[in-house]
Design a protein that fits this description.
Length: about 260
């Protein structure tokens, strides 16, 4: 059996990832970590007779991550597994605007959710899987804005750039391990999510390039969460996963 630990499954990409896994024939155990329970996913799991566990956790409360991962490995994950995968999907776009207009709390929230919590989750995932000979992989959902910098998104770009650097560092550490964890950071493309809605609704004074995102939406160039989820899982389960640490072209639609 394969185990999938996925953060932020309450909606959008996380929800689509779980739905795609539930629809597949193979018997998986999907473990959700999210602030809110997605009742639709719980019901779908029952309908498909699939293993699904939900752990309620606000990833801003980083001190609770250790206990949550401990519970997952105590209660849900069997040592004789075929594979175990962590998808760090959680993310926030805000604060938007020049750095001097960003509040201390907004900056801290962005860094904790986008960078610190994936780092801690990765740390505990590796601690609990170090001795396992099974297939072990981590997929970090990054952003093209880690590389293609725009004004008024300094916190988001910095946190995602940090996530890429962290991914590269862990890949180097794992190269020397007897049973290594393969890890990749991916730019999923421009997707029709609430994050995009937030950007398009930004004040032009605070975000001068808001028209770029409005144009992508107006031209119907946004990917769906469902299509993105399929491509992400295709990447995660590919034979070449880990050969390239940062994947910039999951899709052809990137912010120029």
């Amino acid at each position: 059996m394969k185990y999938y630990i996925i953060t932020r499954t309450s909606n959008e990409i996380g929800e689509a990832l779980v739905k795609e896994l539930l629809a597949r024939k193979e018997q998986n155990h999907i473990i959700s970590i999210s602030r809110r329970e997605n009742v639709i996913l719980s019901e779908l799991a029952k309908t498909h007779n699939k293993n699904f566990s939900f752990y309620k956790l606000d990833l801003r409360k980083t001190e609770l991550i250790k206990g949550t991962i401990q519970s997952i490995f105590n209660n849900d994950v069997h040592n004789n597994n075929e594979g175990i995968y962590l998808i760090n999907n959680v993310g926030v776009i805000g604060p938007l605007g020049p750095i001097e207009k960003n509040t201390d709390t907004e900056i801290m929230d962005n860094m904790i959710i986008n960078l610190i919590s994936p780092m801690i989750l990765t740390s505990h995932f590796i601690k609990h899987t170090n001795y396992l000979e099974s297939d072990k992989r981590i997929l970090n959902i990054s952003s093209g804005l880690a590389k293609y910098l725009l004004p008024s998104q300094s916190a988001y770009s910095t946190s995602k750039c940090g996530l890429d650097s962290f991914t590269k560092s862990i890949a180097l550490e794992q190269k020397e391990k007897k049973f290594p964890v393969r890890i990749v950071s991916v730019y999923p493309g421009v997707i029709g999510t609430k994050l995009q809605e937030e950007i398009r609704a930004a004040n032009k004074e605070d975000f001068p390039l808001v028209h770029l995102f409005q144009g992508v939406y107006g031209n119907r160039h946004l990917q769906t969460s469902e299509d993105t989820a399929k491509k992400l899982l295709e990447l995660l389960l590919s034979d070449t996963f880990g050969h390239q640490t940062v994947i910039e072209e999951l899709t052809s639609i990137l912010i120029p």
